[in-house]
Amino acid sequence: MAISVKVMQRKNQEISYLRAALKGMALTFSHLKRPSVTMQYPEETKTEDWKLPERWRGTHRMLTDEQGRAKCVACGLCPQICPANCIKLVPGEDEEGHRYPLVYEIDEFRCVFCGYCQEVCPEEAIHVGQHYENAEYSRDRFVYDLERLCAQTHPVSTLWDPSDARGE
Amino acid sequence: MTPELKGFLLVASLKILVAFSLVNVGVIMVIWAERRVSAFLQDRLGPNRVGPLGLLQSLADGVKNFTKEETYPAEADPVVFVLAPVLSFIPAMLAAAVIPFGSPLPGFDMTLPIIGQIVYSGEIPMMIADLPIGFLFILAITSLGVYGIVMAGWSSNNKYAFLGSLRGSAQMVSYEIAMGMGLVALMILVGNVTLTEAIARQQESTWFIFPLFIGFFLFAVSSLAETNRLPFDLPETESELVTGFHTEYSSMKFSMFFMAEYANMITASAMMATLFFGGWDIPFTTWDEGPASYLRFFATFGVFLAKTWMFMLTFIWIRWTLPRFRFDQLMQLGWKFMIPLALGYIMLIATTVWVLDTRGVEFGIVYSLILFAVNLPLTYVLFSILDRGKVLGGSQHKRVKVSA
Ligand code: SF4
Ligand code: SF4
């Protein structure tokens, strides 16, 4: 059984590669005059068309209270939910019965920046931030301890709000 | 040594220095230009960090390539593998030897400290060698470059490289014919093959782009194919053959292939400028044909550079616009279209020239314009054939019997 092939009978102007080529040349030439869309990155970090979105989930930041202590109460929810298992928490308790983290470390290298830790935190302590320039020279520098997390100053992520799905 | 010999040696070595640095600097510039222009065509900026406007980017890349590790495939043929980049680089550089890059300089007779008296009588032609075989030399030398490609592909012991080199050789051999035959028409007008003579004849009448319009078309298309540039870069097709014949090459050996490609592009552009756009001739004036002087040399040199660069930019523009041909389409275009067209064109031009000569029409502007008028209907026929897409149509145009 022969394979049936439908032969399309098209008009010349549709199959002419000569006209198509000339049209293409004209199109690329017209692009010569258009302004470039390049953002000159290290000097510019935002342009008119683009800035870091508010929902950007980047380097973590631990918020602090008025006395400068981390807001974290060492409830253990964030290490529990973290899919990358990169939060290390050792809880401690002072004389008045306040729980606080003795050790709180996030390995930014293993983190998948899902933002679950921020979502789950009852104290709004740990946040993912609007920040991405976190390159380091060695792997162990990627493990951020509590002090370093508190010292971050970048704005925190607003995360995705289901009631305002498009961010309007 | 006689003062004449000294003068000759001095002038020759200076000319070699100038011509080769021109090609090498040209290669660096054109690589930079390729990246910048392609960026502008795509609304980007391109390399703009190293040096002013990024001009030193290619130099930095060259240094980087020098210090990179050289890798040798385990089963590669060591001798041929090393020889291949050399064999494609050297012919590409050599071709620049016969291209006249400016009007002649006046001779001199002077006494220098250490060297003593040096004499150069007559005008100094501004090309390394005014060979009597002219552009035949360029055709011969540039087609040697195919050996580099074939050897690279064969010695790499890599199927992609091998396929790339097979395609490269098939393509270059086919388009060589069309290119050579496209120039036969020019040879009829010039009377011989030297480039100086070609320029002189163009100064007498008009640039040969007018009387030999189709010849220029043939030459331009085949030089795209000869230099393996898109839309004819079948030996490299990164989408199907990794990078074709130089897949296995790294560091400076890769760079040599790369530089050879751009040097070939410069040669092709310089050839187009010389053969069809008057070479160093400045249009609309006969001032440049006066007696040799330094001012005239620099003016004509600038004009020559401008013309060559115009073609190089066109090459770049074409590369970043047109998609690649399929291999069978490339062969169809070469054998079924270009070669018959070139043959027919030779007949047409030869007949017209014969008619004009027997009627006693003086060679000059009128002569050119008559030839141009002869070209026009042919151009119309040609483009209407091309336009109907029958030459390169794929399977679409074959009638397929439809049965259940
Ligand atoms: S963002 Fe996700 S992966 Fe990263 S620490 Fe928080 S929960 Fe873990
Ligand atoms: S969820 Fe919040 S409060 Fe609980 S351990 Fe993590 S950071 Fe601390």
What can you see in these coordinates?
The complex is a heterodimer of chains A (168) and B (404). Chain A has 168 residues and is an alpha+beta fold. Chain A has a domain at 60-162: Alpha-Beta Plaits (2-Layer Sandwich). In chain A, 22% of the residues lie in helices and 16% in strands. Chain A has helices at 12-15, 17-33, 77-81, 116-120, 146-151, and strands at residues 58-62, 87-93, 99-107, 126-129, 143-144. In chain A, the strands form two sheets. A three-stranded antiparallel β-sheet of chain A has the order 2-3-5. In chain A, β2 (87-93) and β3 (99-107) form a beta hairpin. In chain A, 18% of the residues are buried. Chain B is globular, with a radius of gyration of 23 Å. Helix content of chain B is 63%, strand content 2%. The N and C termini of chain B lie far apart (89 Å). Chain B has helices at residues 3-41, 57-66, 78-94, 134-155, 159-190, 195-204, 213-226, 238-241, 251-276, 294-319, 327-358, 365-387, and strands at residues 108-112, 116-120. The model of chain B has no long low-confidence stretch (mean pLDDT 82). Chain B has 404 residues and is an all-alpha fold. The longest helix of chain B has 39 residues, at 3-41. At the A-B interface, α2 of A face α1 and α12 of B. The structure holds iron/sulfur cluster (SF4) (2 copies). One iron/sulfur cluster binds next to α4 of chain A. Residues 81-84, 86-87, 106, 111-117, 128 of chain A line the site of one iron/sulfur cluster (SF4).
Helices and strands, with pairings:
The complex is a heterodimer of chains A (168) and B (404).
Chain A (H helix, E strand, L loop, with lengths): L11 H4 L1 H17 L24 E5 L14 H5 L5 E7 L5 E9 L8 H5 L5 E4 L13 E2 L1 H6 L17
Antiparallel strand pairs in A: 1-4, 2-3, 3-5
Chain B lengths: L2 H39 L15 H10 L11 H17 L13 E5 L3 E5 L13 H22 L3 H32 L4 H10 L8 H14 L11 H4 L9 H26 L17 H26 L7 H32 L6 H23 L17
Antiparallel strand pairs in B: 1-2
Helix pairs in contact in B: 1-9, 1-10, 2-9, 3-4, 3-9, 4-5, 5-7, 5-11, 7-9, 7-11, 9-10
The structure holds iron/sulfur cluster (SF4) (2 copies).
